[in-house]
From TrEMBL, chain B:
Residues 163-376 form the Histidine kinase domain. It comes from Sphingomonas vulcanisoli. GO terms for molecular function: hydrolase activity. Its EC number is 2.7.13.3. This is histidine kinase. Residues 132-159 form a coiled coil. Its main location: membrane. Gene3D superfamilies: 1.10.287.130, Histidine kinase-like ATPase, C-terminal domain, PAS domain. It catalyses: ATP + protein L-histidine = ADP + protein N-phospho-L-histidine.
Amino acid sequence: MSVLERNNVKVAGAGARAMVFAHGFGCDQNMWRLVAPAFEDAFKTIMFDHVGAGSSDLSAYDPDKYGRLQGYADDLIAIGRELGLRDAVFVGHSVSAMIGVLASLSDPSMFSDLILVGPSPRYINDGAYIGGFDASDIDELLEALSDNHLGWSAMMAPIIMGNPDRPELGGELINSFCRTDPVIAKDFARVTFTSDNRADLARVTARTLILQCRDDAIAPETVGEYVRNNIPGSELIILDATGHCPNLSAPKDVIAAIRAFV
Amino acid sequence: MSETSERGGDDPGEEFEDLFNNAPCGYLSVLPDGRVARANARFATWSGFGQDAVVGRKLHELLSVATRIFFETNLSPLLRMQGFVDEVAMDFVTLSGPKMQCLVNAAERRDDAGNLLSTRFAIFLAAERRQYERALVDSKAAMERAAAAERENSELREQFIAILGHDLRNPLASISSGVRLLAQRETVSAKGQQILSLMQGSVMRASELVDNVLDFARGRLGGGITLARDANVPLTPVLEQVVAELRSIAPTRDIRSEFAIEEPVDCDRVRIGQLISNLLGNAITHGAPAWPILVQAYTHDEALVIVVANGGSPIDGPTMARLFQPFFRGDVRPKHVGLGLGLHIASEIAKAHGGTLTATSDAEVTRFTFVMPLRKTQAS
């Protein structure tokens, strides 16, 4: 299976330059459905699912490879090489912000611009560094994931049903957005929330924009400032939006910020 | 409808405000900026914070850390995309300390343009249900671990059998050629010749057992029975040789054969030989010595038919039902040595050829019938 099939890569848009959108933990490329189309007139837009999420090839999952964020970064590079990307724009949400950083360190020619949405180089507090969580919080999260994957497990076929509240969804599969394999999701949560990429930030050479929400329970503003202070020449914009997913809650603001930067 | 009936008849306890506040579930409405706009008294009591303290608070301050992360990374995107989530497990914090384990349905309220106005949460206490579900997940994990360990064990065991069987073949072949050399080239007394012939029979029987075990182990290991089909070579000589070998093993038995194979048969001749050898071995072991054993092989109506029939006591119902299962032995009288693999392997060979092996048994005769299509069919 090709990497494009493995990662369910979707290419759209007409531009000469490419813009790659990467989703974070907990969702899939649907995360970008309100943002990516806005760039189709000027860019070739590329969306994909990390292995284990959405419609990726679950059989490609290798616990060793994906036990480190570098494994996901290697996939991103493989997709970029397959599509012949050079000097492209990378837009990564949440943990994919760091995956993009790692990819750009491995192959600096692939992305000229990095746009990091709600990035965190380390979620767990460490001395003076405030990541926002204690190690025990993350252990509790890993435990708790099982509670919600009961009904969401890959074993259960998604149910097709009408949704009277959102008729525009029609017969779309309920909970088909952001479907993840429960076992892989747990691994992904572990690697996401226990990674420490602080030392990688200083080596970034791409132009970098950091987008941060005003009230993000996952990546506090101080973490955004930390990333800005450590990636040379980077710029930080605080969006007037709350939560961890401005790509869904404030897509217009995200689009405007990206457009102004590129 | 009059105003009073809308408000719950004449009972002042059934007014909307009371229905909201004292509903048997918690109820929160949360604004797009994450602040709680309204909370019912039930939720306020459960959490211990009091209604005034809950309203205006950030939703994520009411959630346990794990739920907060899960909500932000998984539930919140799903809510934005499909407008609701049902039956999700969430933990709320309480004033007194212990987490409040709940199941929650949530739905967004949007304006005509699709902008989010608020998100409403119906919250049900579900400590016992959650505990039960956690136990279910734990026991599933334990079961999977046990099954994996068992699979590994049984694979090892079968590999061991396969290797042992394979290694046994060589010394058996040496004994067999030694016996042949002694019988043909050396001067041996008549008594000695008789012993050598018995030995040859025993060696052959041992080789067959090894072959059956190997086939079985291979089948279990996923290799299945593989066929080397060839329609161009005649089958009859192979069958004749098998019958001759078994006659030499059981010289006291009357084994009659009738072969009429008039069309080419697209089969693996060695395998068909093994099948007929297993059936004959079975007839020799279980048939009454006083009755002849009849072996027939013929082509008829686009099919190859092989019948092995013997006299003796009929096979009873329970035995018949399990006849082709591995390691099944109808009776375990001392003379009936063997692993109980012969008929199982024979039936596997039949299946591999797209054919069937069936048995009938009554007071007069026990008959095994193998039927296979002359040519390979799509299904096989």
